[in-house]
Amino acid sequence: MIEGIISLVVGLVIGLVLVVWLMRVMVSNQVDNEFEKWRSRELYAVRRDALDEARPAVQRRVGTAIANWTHSFPFLQEDSRFIGHPIDYIVFEGYSDVRSKRDHQISSVTFVRARREGRADPEGSLVEECIRLGRVEWLTLEVGTPATKALPVRSPS
Questions:
Q1: What's the CA gap between 8 and 24, in Å, rounded?
Q2: Which DSSP letter does residue 105 get?
Q3: pTM (2 decimals)?
């Protein structure tokens, strides 16, 4: 009878150890799977955030490099914002003076298209046509309110 009790206790201990080990393996696998799901979601978000934060700095560096290549760039780099395509720059003349409180207004806004001589740029030409014909509008979007129709701002004829 003692041998039966000892066998029962040994079997119980072995069964308990086996159940604990199996539960740990299952929980560990589940945790690993959940961690990988979370990691892949967060990694995508972190990469997207990093790109969104780096993009303006890269645009400024590219814009500065392009402006330095064109020795005839007639504007202050601090007043210029590199856009890319179809307009290369928007220049807010006097903006650096307004920021440094040397002046209280921007003197003009100029759209700049840099292109090599003889090269066609149909998209840039379309934008230039809109500006020359006064088809330019201003729209301020208030965050949290529905968009409204843009108010036309026509250049003096």
A1: 24
A2: S
A3: 0.49
Query: Range of 35's domain?
Result: 24-131
State the sign of the Cα–Cα–Cα–Cα dihedral 8, 10, 13, 15: negative
Spatial distance between the Cα atoms of 55 and 49, rounded to a whole number of angstroms:
10
The 3-state DSSP class for residue 139 equals coil
- Answer yes or no: is 58 within a domain: yes
Rounded (10°) CA dihedral 148, 55, 59, 99: 60
Rounded to an integer, what distance in angstroms lies between the CA atom of residue 113 and that of residue 91?
11
Q: Which tokens is 146 given?
A: 């529905």
**Structural domain contains residue 13:** no
Q: How high is the mean pLDDT of the chain?
A: 82
| Cα angle for residues 102, 105, 110 (degrees, 5° grid) | 115
Return the structure tokens found at 27: 């929980």
Tens-place pLDDT, residues 7-29: 888 889 999 999 999 999 999 99
Q: Are the C-beta atoms of 131 and 111 separated by less than 8 Å? A: yes
Residue 54 maps to a domain:
yes
75 falls within a domain: yes
Number of domains in the chain: 1
